[in-house]
Amino acid sequence: MNDKFLIWQFKRGSSKALCRIYVKYEDIMLTMAVSLLNDVNAAEDVVHDVFVSFAQSAAKISPNGNLRGYLTTCVANLARDRIRAQHWQEKVGLDDTESICLKSNGPLQTLIDDEQFRQLNCAMAKLPYEQREVVTLHLQAGMTFEAIALSQDISINTIQSRYRYGIEKLRSFLDGEVEK
Amino acid sequence: MRPLKDTEKLIKKSHIKAGSDLHQRTINDALQAQAESNKKNSALLQPNIWRIIMKSPITKLVTAAVVIIACVIGLSLWRTTGSGIALADVLARIEQVKAFRSQWSDQWNEDPNKPYSFYYETRGTFLQSQEYGIKSKIEQLDPNGGESTFKEVYRSPDRKTLIVITPKQKKYWRVEFDDSWSEQLQEQGQERDPRAFLKRILKYKYESLGRATIDGIEVEGFQTTDPNYLDNDPNSQVDVKMWVDVKTRLPVRYEEACAWFDQMRDKIIKRAHFVMHDFQWDVPVDAAEFEPPVIPDDYTGTVVKWPAINEENAIQGLKQCLEFFGKYPESITECGVFLFKRLAGSDLALRSVEKSETPAAMRLKEELKGLSEDDKVTRLSDATTPIRSLARFYFEHEWDKKDPAYYGKTVTPKDADKVLMRWKVSDNDYRVIYGDLHAETVTPEKLAELEKLLPK
User: Helix H segments across chain A?
Assistant: First the structure.
């Protein structure tokens, strides 16, 4: 269903529209959150909190807004806040990243058992957070560099650089070419 | 090493399906939150006594009469007690000024708790002459208390050339604007020109702040907090104040305070504060003051042209993509790298050209061989001017919410009947550039039919 119509219904208090929006975007929100946090439990919490907050924000949502962009940006912002709160980025060095790759003790672990994706998430965990965020927002959330730059109030040059460094590092990690 | 595209594909393909536990928990909590929020909002929207009274036709007539009387009384009070300063008169007064000097400071401040917070503080002097252009000296302060960076900026009176010199780094940067850009930059108030600021305030809702004294001068203040002043960003707030000398009717101080909120609008993530002060109006100036110094031989620099933003140049940009890369870009973002003046962007642009084997790309690569890094950037920027024009054309339409769309991923030069790019020109019309680069105006209905033909 068209996003503009969903927003229109949602702004009029439709619970059906709210459910449809969630069903439409839950997987992309979770995929992104896992990529950013490398912790399935924390990622689930972020998705939950973002969407509950979204449910209360009907008045704030622009009728012509980009729903996908809005929700994925909220996920990125909250994930960043959680990372900051827990100081993960500062504590985790390259040697530690293997241990935080997809921390999970829940049933979701079985859904992401593809070895390739496991490797990808481990590699993502090694990226500096700022680069991981741009790679995730661009490739998983489908946001343009312009949109990412606008949402973060950072110049597009910086976003492009972060993306380029991030994606190249990721390729090196996946090829096992980066020496610890 | 695996190709970069494979890594990108792998990330794009990665998909995690939410489990039923998360699904149920989130849906339940979200529905409950929505129900509570709806309840609160509907309470706020209950018809109040005022609305009930106003439903009566007699009350409406009586109220209208009261409003008219109140307006007449209010108008007479305003005429007798107000300062008499009208901002339009201030603008007219500034237009007569031939040259002025001022000082300014600019501060950008992000949430310090953010992992990548950004702090930026500059200050400088500004000399503007209608006849000779602009000269500005800028000091960028080191947030850690270290040495400042100094820049000199010179803008020609026709607004077509801007030269920035950083003596310490022995660098210069020359920008050449198309006419359309120079007008637009002035209109957008990007030149720190009080005339542009006043024009913008006049466009929006503003109010008088009454009288005050600044530096011993009696002034009257005007304020706008209209969100449209700042690009209509729903996540921002703006507070603009202009203080005008009640005797000369010329500005004494201009202040612009902006705050940006996070997506949830819960907290401020960035602040900016710009002040222009110590104005000296109608100062005598000498043409020599505005002459950029001769760039010493040991300085390195780049030259960047800002092309005009129009359909013709956008089509030229698409043609140049074909020449350089043998195909249309898959997305306009790909062209965006050609917009960058800094090395990271130029580096990306260079790589795009280096990967291509078309005759035009080979010729350009040959030309770039042996050039210094700065000269490479200049030559590349020059050679890809139409592509930059295309990118700007698209981004400007996106920014203006003109509903642009681009289908370079699936449309080729052979597709004379398929929409390659389109944007809105009015409520009833869209402009369309087809795969073979001819263009026409179509109705939204026709566009919908055309877009149905596009490959999925």
Answer: 3-11, 15-37, 40-55, 67-86, 88-91, 97-100, 108-111, 115-126, 129-135, 145-152, 156-174
Facing B37 at nearest CB: one of A30, A56, A175: A56
Tokens coding B189: 């108030």
Domain boundaries, position A141: 3-174
Domains of chain B by residue range: 90-288, 311-400, 403-456
Counting the structural domains of chain A, the total is 1
- Identify which of A60, A80, A108 has the shortest CB distance to residue B19: A108
Distance CA B199, CA B384 (A): 35
Interchain contact, A58 vs B41, CB within 8 Å: yes
d(CA B178, CA B67): 51
Give the amino acid at B82.
G
- How many angstroms separate the CA atoms of B328 and B247, rounded? 61
φ and ψ of B376, to 5 deg? -60, -45
Q: Is residue A52 part of a domain?
A: yes
CATH 3.40.50 fits B90-288, yes or no: no
- Quick one: residue B452, left, alpha or beta (phi over 0 = left, psi -120 to 50 = alpha)? alpha
CB A79 within 8 A of CB A36: yes
Size of interface A-B (CB pairs under 8 A): 164
CA distance A78 to chain B (A): 10
With an 8 Å Cβ cutoff, are B262 and A161 in contact?
no
The reply to whether A113 falls in a domain is yes
Query: For residue A49, is it within any domain?
Result: yes
| Residue A65 identity (one-letter amino acid) | G
Which residues from A are below 8 Å from B8, CB to CB?
Answer: 139, 167
Task: Give dist(CA B390, CA B121) in Å, integer.
Answer: 34
8 Å CB contact of A54 and B30: yes
Query: Can you give the pLDDT at residue A88?
Result: 38
Sign of CA dihedral B376, B377, B379, B380: positive
Q: How confident is the model at residue A91 (pLDDT cuts 50, 70, 90)?
A: very low
Quote the Cα angle for B166-B170-B174, to 5°: 60
CA dihedral A12, A16, A21, A24 (to 10 degrees): -160
Chain A interface test: which of B4, B5, B7 (most A C-beta within 10 Å):
B7
Query: Which parts of chain B register pLDDT below 70?
Result: 1-3, 13, 15, 39-84, 111-119, 143-144, 181-191, 231-234, 262-266, 333-352
Q: Tell me: the pLDDT tens digits for B55-90?
A: 344 434 444 444 444 333 333 333 333 456 888 899
